[in-house]
Predict the structure.
Amino acid sequence: MTPRQTSEHGEQAGGKTMRVHVRRRGGVAFEATTDDGGHRVVIDGPATLGGEGGGMRPMELFLVSLATCSAMDVVMILGQQRQALEDLDIEVEGKRADAVPAVYERIHLRFVATGEVAANKLERAVQLSAEKYCSVSRMLLPSVEVTHEAVLLPAGEDEE
């Protein structure tokens, strides 16, 4: 199956309704659970809003969603191409508007891959995810400028 045929969770794509439940845990802290109750995420605000730093902020979690959606695509694509990916780190930087609401204006994703991977295949996998397969990335168009880059490190090497 290609990434286009399945969702980011390996389910058949096409019209599935997704649900989460969010419950306040005090102050501006919330706990989100998946519809089946199997997964939990804690979200909290900054101290200026009454938060206690007990979880990610909503806009940070959005960047996580974008990065992991793209990363799953990249891993799947490289796997289909029989590339020996050892590790994949994604660094995400989002520039927000200096206004209310402080929406993202620009987001940059930097994919750092380690392993026996052809550089052109890594670059193509990142491009396909960004431009075709990642649902989160596609939802940002056309209002947010999303850029990406791919860095390949030799097998067994870490970026410093």
